[in-house]
Structures
1.
Amino acid sequence: QVQLQESGPGLVKPSETLSLTCTVSGGSVSGGGAFWSWIRQPPGKELEWIGYIDYSGNTKYSPTLKSRVTISVDTSKSQFSLSLTSVTAADTAVYYCARQLWFRSCRGPTCSVGSWFDPWGQGTLVIASS
Amino acid sequence: QSVLTQPPSASGTPGQRVTISCSGGSSNIGSNTISWYRQLPGTAPRLLIHTDDRRPSGVPDRFSGSKSGTSASLAISGLQSEDAADYFCAAWDDGLNGVIFGGGTKVTVL
């Protein structure tokens, strides 16, 4: 079964860049039909979707973070990575990577998007502080 | 403030049925499917329901999902002590062109 594991520094200084890597085992990021996503959860707050990448490198980012986020993929290592620039204390959160299943179903002019996350990595706490 | 609205808490005694609501709008729940997750303290969320009412293999049939219009619900029947956790809903939002989450509901087993 597919498993994901985040890795990276747990402490980042304000104004610097947060960098995390997610290693996928039991499966491959090269397979079609799935996106590879980053999600974060500030302490005591709700989950926030950051963005995703597919196996060919196509990305989609949350509009609120788009100017600071880059997600990349290394299919040879079965890894994908998150880079978040100019961090502030507001970026302190547990960061999760997850496989995102996504489909679009259309009936005539009406389309519906189905999207869910399974599985998730265990999460890694990143604190933005000097 | 979350775009998807959940009650902050819900509770029940062992064996009871508990229902959690998730309210959204026409750009998310009203036009796209919803998923539900359970998060035990200090752990990653786990998928319970996808595509409104589909249960992945391994999820007990005590968990069921439904949707009507711009609202959805997760029902837990035969409540067990292990069900004490936070529960989140999520959906694709056409306006955001991304995923949005509910604020979460903390379920307490009395």
2.
Amino acid sequence: EAGVTQFPSHSVIEKGQTVTLRCDPISGHDNLYWYRRVMGKEIKFLLHFVKESKQDESGMPNNRFLAERTGGTYSTLKVQPAELEDSGVYFCASRQAGPTQYFGPGTRLTVL
Amino acid sequence: DQQVKQNSPSLSVQEGRISILNCDYTNSMFDYFLWYKKYPAEGPTFLISISSIKDKNEDGRFTVFLNKSAKHLSLHIVPSQPGDSAVYFCAASTNSGAGSYQLTFGKGTKLSVIP
């Protein structure tokens, strides 16, 4: 069974540009989460999808971040326009039944 | 305010000995606790978990202990192996009204197992 995959693994963009991160959850997992780890800080929750619906987006930092999960399969996280403080590693995780979440390898975003 | 705290940023242990990683939490609503292991440039890998209705869960070399009254949990690795060298994250979740199960993480403890 394939695990959670994320694309790209690394993205370097200029301040003010737009970046879109993609996450493919484990097949059949209805629950999909986005997290972010900024340098030196803990991994923090951004938002949670159940199928295509946003269940909880209380962790989204501001309206420059837009997450979608059309069709309830893969998800995208768009940052527009990117700022310096958006740099970090963005993790996606998925789960089906139970509380255990399975993480992808992350996307390292560097905003210059 | 950090709801999950791992107060030791690093730990060094001799191969074959026991590794004990500690975690404290403040939110009494947490009802499920998980440990993740992370290698550089990889995502966190699930290791072991424990429900708040239990005080111990064991899986091979890994045992997690939960002390609810002290709001403290620990991960024991016996015997420690060089391949265990990684960053270990403690995480907690609650099944809130929305059923989110979002994870709240500690900052991690870097374990180095010396051959």
